[in-house]
Structure formats: structure tokens, C-alpha cells
Design goal:
Helix content: 25-40%
Structural class: alpha/beta
Radius of gyration: 19 Å
Strand content: 15-25%
Number of helices: 12
CATH class of the largest domain: Alpha Beta
Number of strands: 12
Largest sheet: 7 strands, mixed
Distance between the termini: 33 Å
CATH superfamily of the largest domain: Thiamin diphosphate (ThDP)-binding fold, Pyr/PP domains
Strand order of the largest sheet: 2-1-3-4-6-5-10
């Protein structure tokens, strides 16, 4: 464990680089974090708080980026994406202004704040916009790496951070160039996941190992690199995708697009939030909400066992 949340690891790296690169600027929509408190105190000339006004965060940030600054716009994830979609579409997708849009609390990160704060559409929405790279962060090491990369080479990007303290999956010398990583090899197929659900995928693969050998692939960047994905899955004939996201347009859809575009037929089971379930108004924590959608560990395990049995597996 790095003992840092993804948020703090990300901003620690930005702060470290901003101390020697005065072109790095952070735009906050009234958001805080320990690393940001230090940034505000020590680098006041590189920090702008626009208040609870995410539209302004994107517009001001895009203007500064046009002037040559390396800009990060930060807020709660649903509000720095869906609330300001037109600004992102025009300024970053159309005009290709290199703004890094940083959202914290992807998926059910703000579990007890209700469906207004849940974000289970962002991958579908943001990957529908050209020129914007989505970084779906799964651990703190990756968060720091992405922060450093965007400080060095600004680009239109959306970074989705989780609020939960999660175990590290990567070492500090990890290579994040391909946009995905095989975390666990498997003989019978692969589970593909993204963000916080990668940790669930690893738990489920471990739980099912007596009956099936399933590998785990972390898909952490969209658009998916088709060649990297096909190389990772090899000749497997069974894939399961797991996501804390509506099924329409999310990870599973992106994987199927790659396969269909390449004319590859593989049996795929998509597990995520069914559209017909709509928005969840239940409370009780993240696991309660995941259970509502059928993506808690037990429900995922049962669904995979059923899927493999249908396909003739011994599971």
C-alpha cells in the first residue's frame, strides 16, 4: 500500500512538478485535498478556485491552456463531466485544447450522497467525444504516473479517480504505455475490468480458481488499443467484462466494438449496471448499491459460474 488515495497521489505528483514548472496550473471548483491545500499555500499564483462553478473551471482552464499553461480542472466527477458537457465538447473535443479534466468519485465513490452524485455514465459519454483520452485509474501508482505524464505532455484528457483507499496493483516502474495490463494469467478465459472494479475482478478470479482459471486484465485507458487487447487475450474464447457503470457504452461495449471491428467471435459476458435498473436510491454503502445492480462479489461470482457452465466449463 502507498497509504495514499488516488486523489492524493495524483495531486502530490502535480504539486511536486509544479514547484519547478510554473506553467502548471490547477483550477478547483471549490474542492479540497491535503495536497491541494499545500498547493494553494505554496503556489498561490498557480491555483485558481472558481467556486462551485464547474462550467467556469472548464472555460477558464481552457483559456489558460490556450495561453500555454498546463492546466488541471478538478471537481466531483459527475459535475466536472456531465454538468459541463457542452464546454468539454466545444473547447476540448472540437478545439482540441489540452485540458486535463480530473474527477473524483467515479462510479459509486460518493455512495451515500444519492444518485445525483453517482457516476455510471461517464465512460460512455466521454468516449463518444473525439480527441479526449479517458484514464480510468485503478490504483495510486497509476494515478501518480498519469499526473506526471500530463504535466510533461498536456493533452485533452479525463481522469476518473476513486475515493476509496485501494491496494496498489502496480510497482513504480510499471509501464503504462499500452492502456491495459494483464494482472493475472488464466487458461479458461479472462475477466476484463476497469477502475475500482479491477479489485473485485481479482477477488472473484481468486474465489473461482478451484473450478476455473480466469485471468484478469485491467483496461485503464480509452479508446482501447485494439492491438494491445487482442495480444493480451490471445486465443481465448471466453471473456467477462465487469464495470461499475451502465452497460450501454461502457467497458463491455468498448471491448465488443474492438472484437466486432476485427471480425473476431468470442463469447462475452458483460456484467455492469443494467439500464433497466435505472438509478439507485438505496442507501447503506457501496456494497449495498453494487448488490442492487448485481455487481457485488457474490453476484459476479454466480454470474460467471453460470456463464462458464453454459459454455461447457466445469465451474
Amino acid at each position: 500500500m502507498s497509504n495514499l488515495s488516488q486523489r492524493d497521489a495524483f495531486w502530490e505528483e502535480v504539486y511536486k512538478r509544479a514547484c519547478t514548472d510554473r506553467d502548471i496550473v490547477v483550477i478547483s471548483a471549490d474542492m479540497g485535498a491535503p495536497a491541494l491545500d499545500r498547493f494553494r499555500r505554496d503556489l498561490a499564483g498557480q491555483f485558481v478556485n472558481v467556486g462551485i462553478a464547474e462550467h467556469n473551471a472548464i472555460t477558464v482552464g481552457s483559456g489558460l491552456a490556450l495561453a500555454g499553461k498546463k492546466v488541471f480542472a478538478y471537481a466531483i466527477a459527475p459535475f466536472i463531466t456531465l454538468r459541463v458537457l457542452e464546454q468539454i465538447r466545444v473547447e476540448n473535443a472540437m478545439m482540441k485544447i489540452p485540458l486535463a479534466i480530473v474527477g473524483v468519485g467515479a462510479g459509486f465513490g460518493y455512495e451515500d450522497s444519492g444518485p445525483t452524485h453517482h457516476l455510471i455514465e461517464d465512460i460512455a459519454v466521454m468516449r463518444a467525444l473525439p480527441h479526449i483520452t479517458i484514464h480510468s485509474i485503478s490504483d495510486s501508482v497509476m494515478a501518480a504516473h498519469v499526473a506526471g505524464a500530463l504535466c510533461a505532455t498536456p493533452a485533452p484528457a479525463y481522469i476518473r479517480l476513486d475515493r476509496e483507499m485501494l491496494p496498489d496493483l502496480y510497482t513504480h516502474d510499471a509501464d503504462f504505455n499500452s492502456g491495459l495490463a494483464v494482472l493475472k494469467e488464466g487458461r479458461d478465459g479472462f475477466i476484463l475490468s476497469t477502475g475500482s472494479m479491477v479489485h473485485a475482478a481479482l477477488r472473484v478470479a481468486d474465489a473461482i480458481r478451484a473450478n476455473a482459471s480466469l485471468g484478469v486484465i485491467d483496461v485503464y485507458r480509452f479508446p482501447i488499443d485494439a492491438d494491445a487487447l487482442l495480444e493480451a487475450i490471445g486465443g481465448t474464447k471466453k471473456l467477462v467484462t465487469i464495470e461499475e457503470h451502465f452497460l450501454a457504452g461502457g467497458l463491455g461495449s468498448a471491448v465488443l466494438e474492438v472484437l466486432m471491428d476485427r471480425g473476431i467471435t468470442i463469447s462475452v459476458k458483460r456484467l455492469g449496471c443494467p439500464m433497466e435498473s435505472g438509478y439507485c436510491y438505496q442507501y447503506g454503502g457501496r456494497e449495498t448499491i453494487r448488490k442492487y445492480y448485481g455487481i457485488d462479489d457474490a453476484s459476479i461470482l454466480h454470474a460467471i459460474q453460470t456463464f462458464l457452465a453454459i459454455e461447457g466449463s466445469s465451474a
